[in-house]
Design brief:
- Belongs to the methyltransferase superfamily.
- One of its GO terms (molecular function) is malonyl-CoA methyltransferase activity.
- The chain is an alpha/beta fold.
- It has a domain of 185 residues: Rossmann fold, CATH 3.40.50.
- It has nine helices and nine strands.
- The protein has a seven-stranded mixed sheet with strand order 3-2-1-4-5-7-6, sandwiched between helices. A two-stranded antiparallel ribbon has the order 8-9.
- Helix 6 packs across helix 9.
- It is globular, with a radius of gyration of 21 Å.
- The N and C termini lie far apart (53 Å).
C-alpha cells in the first residue's frame, strides 16, 4: 500500500475556500454521482437513516432525500463552509441534517445507519483502516455502503507534465482499487464489489484545468508537497510539457474513478487485525454467562 500522507488541515482549508465556486466546476462529480445512485438499487429495504459522507455542497444529500423521503438524511462534511452552502439544497419540504465531522470519527451511534453514501470523498482520507472501521461501526448489519473515489491514474497527464519541470509532488496521489478492496475486507465489510471507470475531460489550455481544480478545492494536499511558491520557470516548463500532449487541439485530463459497494457485517463478525489475526467484538449486553454461587 502507498505510504503517502495527506495534510488534513490543508484538505479542510481547500474545500472550505471552494464552497462558493464548487458547483461551477462539478460536471464530473455530478456524472459520477448519477452512477453511484444506481448502486443503491441493491438495497431493497426502506431505510430509516441515510448518511452522505463528504457531502460538500449538498447536491447528493438532496438526491438521497428525494429517493428516501421518509428517512433521516444526514449530510456530513469536514469543511463547515461547504455545509453552510449545502443549506440551499435542503428545502423545508425535504430537509436534511448537516453535521461537520470527519469520516473517521462520525458522531453517530454504533449500528445506527442503514445506507452510508459517499461520492468522491474517500480519496482525501489516508487512514483506510480507520475509515472503513468507522463505516463498519455505524452500519447496521446488512446496511449498505456505497461510495466512489479516485484511483491512481487520475490526472496522470498533469502529474507527468509536472515531472518534466521538477521532482516535487504537485498532484495528490490516490490509492489503487486493490488497496481499497483489501482495506474493506480487513475491516470486515461483506461482499465488496468494486469497478473502475475512466473519464477524459478536455480543456482549451492547461490553465483551465488548474482553475477547475482550484474551484473544486481538489488541489495538492500531500504532506510532502513543497511549501514555497513554485518558480515561474518551472511553471512554464510544466505548461509546455502539457501543451505537447494536445489531442485534436484539446488538452486531455484523465480521471480514474473507483465505484464500490459492500454490506455491514453481523455484529461480532471477525475482522483482520494489523498482525494478520482476526478480531471479533460484541456488545457487552449480548454476552450471557453464569455466576458461581
Amino acid at each position: 500500500m502507498s505510504d503517502f500522507q495527506l495534510d488534513k488541515s490543508q484538505v479542510r482549508r481547500h474545500f472550505g475556500r471552494a464552497a462558493k465556486s464548487y458547483e461551477q466546476h462539478d460536471v464530473l462529480q455530478r456524472e459520477v454521482q448519477a452512477a453511484l445512485l444506481e448502486r443503491l438499487d441493491f438495497y431493497t429495504q426502506t431505510p430509516q437513516r441515510v448518511i452522505d459522507v463528504g457531502a460538500g455542497t449538498g447536491r447528493g444529500s438532496a438526491l438521497l432525500k428525494q429517493r428516501y423521503a421518509k428517512a433521516e438524511v444526514i449530510a456530513v462534511d469536514l469543511a463547515l463552509p461547504m455545509l453552510r452552502t449545502a443549506k440551499q439544497h435542503s428545502s423545508w419540504l425535504k430537509p436534511f441534517i448537516r453535521i461537520c465531522a470527519e469520516a473517521t470519527s462520525l458522531p453517530l451511534a454504533d449500528h445506527s445507519v442503514d445506507v452510508l453514501h459517499s461520492n468522491l470523498c474517500f480519496q482525501w482520507i489516508d487512514d483506510l483502516p480507520g475509515l472503513f472501521g468507522e463505516c463498519v461501526r455505524v452500519l447496521k448489519p446488512g446496511g449498505l455502503l456505497a461510495f466512489s473515489t479516485f484511483g491512481p491514474d487520475t490526472l496522470k497527464e498533469l502529474r507527468a507534465a509536472w515531472a518534466e519541470a521538477d521532482q516535487q509532488p504537485h498532484v495528490s496521489r490516490f490509492l489503487d482499487m486493490h488497496d481499497v478492496g483489501d482495506a474493506m475486507l480487513n475491516a470486515g465489510l461483506r461482499d465488496p464489489v468494486l469497478d473502475v471507470f475512466r473519464y477524459t475531460l478536455t480543456y482549451s489550455e492547461p490553465r483551465k484545468l488548474l482553475e477547475e481544480l482550484q474551484g473544486l478545492g481538489a488541489t495538492n494536499a500531500d504532506r510532502a508537497r513543497e511549501r514555497g511558491l513554485t518558480g515561474k520557470s518551472r511553471y512554464q516548463r510544466m505548461l509546455a510539457a502539457y501543451e505537447a500532449m494536445r489531442v485534436h487541439d484539446r488538452i486531455p485530463a484523465t480521471w480514474e474513478v473507483v465505484t464500490a459497494h459492500a454490506w455491514g457485517p453481523p455484529v461480532g463478525q471477525p475482522r483482520r487485525g494489523s498482525d494478520g489475526g482476526e478480531i471479533a467484538s460484541f456488545s457487552i449486553d449480548s454476552l450471557r454467562g453464569s455466576r458461581r454461587k
